[in-house]
Design brief:
272 residues, alpha/beta, 10 helices, 32% helix, 25% strand
Length: 272
């Protein structure tokens, strides 16, 4: 996959402050990032870097800001009129909230998969053709669709029924179709907001296997309540608590010996 052009000047600006360091170069970084829903502050000074072509798991109790932070990375929160932010979200150094940046372009490069499978009530093919049209992509549509379905490990199951309704698929198949839909515009980053919470154990295992495969091509950020899942699929883990980043580091180190007691208490199930 070719390197995408920067959205704007990729240089970090003086005075922005350091983001949390990781072992691999960051694709995304939030710096002193705050977010409010009306008068309620949901995120407080979050400094976090997302390393390239790794899986980063976001964990924490309900209402701690995990999904809010995730949706901030590709400006999905823009769709809520009561949201305001301060600080920076940077994609390869470019501020995605800069005035001249098109949110549609941001979401093309930073794709998203939601908690419940949400295929369009259209054919399987049309589910993937639609985002291509929105992004003005006219060339090689069938090839792009096949490639995305292959990368989402569902091509063999649907190749002879592309003109059938997507809602006829099983729940697990629908979620893999939604992953293919997110991949068809060739993003660099894939955000996943509890993608397995509505699935049975067998479908969950297939999605987890798929996440391992996707890491070869994409940077993946996954919100999950499942500690075992975070340990299985991720290389890095961030623990959020009441809108703040409590701890971030390698998954292996955090699950073996967390730095903070609150992190240990959450991972070991003492609260959540």
């Amino acid at each position: 996959m070719s390197q995408p052009a920067p959205l704007l000047d990729p240089e970090r600006r003086p005075g922005d402050g350091p983001a949390t360091a990781v072992a691999a170069p960051p694709v995304l970084a939030t710096t002193n990032f705050n977010l409010w829903y009306g008068d309620h502050q949901a995120l407080h000074d979050v400094n976090l870097e997302v390393p390239e072509k790794q899986v980063t798991a976001i964990i924490g109790p309900s209402g701690c800001g995990k999904s809010t932070w995730l949706r901030s990375l590709n400006r999905m929160n823009d769709l809520l009129g009561t949201v305001r932010t301060s600080g920076h979200v940077r994609y390869r150094g470019a501020d995605v909230y800069a005035r001249h940046v098109d949110p549609v372009e941001v979401r093309r490069r930073i794709g998203m998969v939601f908690q419940k499978p949400n295929p369009f009530p259209k054919s399987i093919r049309e589910n993937l053709a639609f985002p291509l049209r929105i992004n003005g992509i006219r060339d090689g549509v069938d090839q792009r669709i096949e490639q995305a379905l292959r990368r989402a490990s569902i091509w063999e199951e649907v190749k002879d029924r592309l003109h059938k309704g997507a809602l006829e698929l099983s729940g697990g198949q629908q979620q893999r179709l939604c992953i293919a839909r997110a991949l068809v515009t060739e993003p660099e980053v894939l955000l996943m907001d509890e993608p397995c919470s509505a699935l049975d154990p067998g479908s969950t295992a297939r999605i987890e296997d798929l996440i391992h495969e996707l890491r070869q091509r994409y940077t993946v950020v996954i919100v999950t309540h499942n500690m075992q899942q975070a340990a299985r699929v991720s290389q890095f883990t961030a623990f959020f608590y009441v809108g703040r980043l409590e701890e971030f580091g390698s998954t292996r180190a955090m699950f073996a010996k967390p730095v903070h007691k609150r992190t240990e208490d959450y991972i070991t199930g003492r609260f959540g």
